[in-house]
Amino acid sequence: MTDRQIAYQYFLQSPGWLGLRLKCFERDGHRCQGCGTNERLQAHHRFYRQRWEDTELDDLVTLCKGCHEALHQNPRQFSNFVGRLKRYENRAVREKRKRKAKYYRKWLKAQRLKARRHKWSF
After folding, report:
1. Backbone dihedral region for residue 40 (phi beyond 0: left; psi -120 to 50: alpha; all else: beta)
2. How many Å apart are CA 53 and CA 112, to the nearest integer?
3. How far apart are CA 3 and CA 11, in angstroms?
4. CB of 70 within 8 A of CB of 78?
5. In sequence order, what DSSP letters do the residues of 17-72 get, joined into one string?
6. Bridge partners of 43?
7. 3-state secondary structure of 121
8. Which of left, alpha, beta for 10 (phi over 0: left; psi -120 to 50: alpha)?
9. CA angle at residue 73 from 70 to 79, to 5 degrees?
């Protein structure tokens, strides 16, 4: 194994990764997004960020061991599955935008209240 592979194995044992992995499983209802089973689940990186520590929940998808191995061995065979992943990705992006918009509306409301209080204080 190379140094990078060893470092990645350590990352996979870190509390941060294990927590993110559990969140991924919970978000996906503890089901493989390929075949729907709930056995031997793994978190698949749809893509890697420059640093592993920067991995976000939206970067992951829940797959069973069989689907995960098949996806890595022959991605073309999973073209239908990849299409579902893209729809899944779009759903995740929409949900993230909704969360950001909700946060922004709350922040804006707080700023307006703060400005109103400041305007009337002497």
Report:
1. left
2. 36
3. 12
4. yes
5. HHHHHHHHHHHTTTS-TTT---SSEEEEESS--SSGGG--GGGEEEEEHHHHHHHH
6. 62
7. coil
8. alpha
9. 65
Give me the residue label for tokens 């998808």.
61
In the chain, how many H helices and how many E strands?
A: 4, 2
Per-residue pLDDT of the chain (122 residues; tens, 9 = 90+): 788 788 888 888 888 889 999 999 998 899 888 888 889 999 988 777 777 777 788 788 899 998 888 888 876 666 556 556 656 666 666 677 777 777 778 888 887 777 777 655 55
- And the tokens for 57? 């929940």
The structure's pTM equals 0.60
Spatial separation of the C-alpha atoms in residues 94 and 87, rounded to whole Å: 11
